């Protein structure tokens, strides 16, 4: 929900951003028709600046919606035509949005204050690696494996990306088949999937 009390939805198969006014029940499509076919955007998060950020799933660029102005823009650079790049977004204490790579190779970091998009950490091979993430009580972003074998941790302050814990494929719990597809931070500060 935006600071204006409206709900914003980035387009997945649609062409434009949907804004729903919760007070009146009215809705409208805002911004220009966005390029690309289906699965343009699959996640969004509200940034510290009151704008919505959506990492590109099959779109090429990060989507930014200024909720106060109803303005829609695409941030540079273009991350290319790879489908299903990112499926999640988490706002971290450093004021940046992080996305764990699904079919992309590296973690996406969006500096909301600078409107700067960067890829951080090592190249991580494979497809369908992580589709969900949550913020831990230590300020790190954690992503449970979907079709990967280990948990991804992003230390946002150090900008360090690493896979942690045991190889879950060896336990029969992961390594394919969409092992975990959601994550939430519990009241105890731990991440649950």
UniProtKB/TrEMBL annotation:
<protein>
    <recommendedName>
        <fullName>SMP-30/Gluconolactonase/LRE-like region domain-containing protein</fullName>
    </recommendedName>
</protein>
<dbReference type="InterPro" id="IPR015943">
    <property type="entry name" value="WD40/YVTN_repeat-like_dom_sf"/>
</dbReference>
């Amino acid at each position: 929900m935006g600071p204006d009390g409206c709900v914003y939805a980035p387009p997945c198969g649609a062409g434009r951003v949907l804004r729903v006014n919760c007070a009146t029940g009215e809705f409208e499509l805002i911004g220009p028709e966005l390029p690309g076919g289906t699965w343009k955007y699959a996640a969004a998060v509200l940034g510290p600046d009151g704008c919505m950020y959506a990492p590109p799933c099959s779109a090429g660029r990060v989507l930014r919606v200024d909720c106060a102005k109803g303005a829609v823009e695409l941030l540079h650079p273009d991350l290319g035509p790879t489908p299903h790049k990112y499926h999640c977004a988490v706002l971290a204490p450093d004021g940046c949005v992080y996305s764990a790579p699904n079919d992309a190779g590296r973690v996406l970091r969006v500096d909301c204050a600078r409107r700067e998009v960067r890829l951080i950490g090592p190249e991580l091979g494979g497809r369908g690696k992580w589709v969900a993430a949550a913020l831990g009580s230590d300020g790190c972003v954690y992503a449970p494996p979907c079709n990967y074998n280990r948990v991804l941790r992003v230390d946002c302050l150090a900008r360090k990306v690493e896979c942690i814990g045991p190889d879950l494929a060896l336990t029969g719990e992961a390594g394919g088949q969409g092992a975990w597809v959601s994550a939430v931070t519990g009241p105890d500060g731990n991440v649950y999937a």
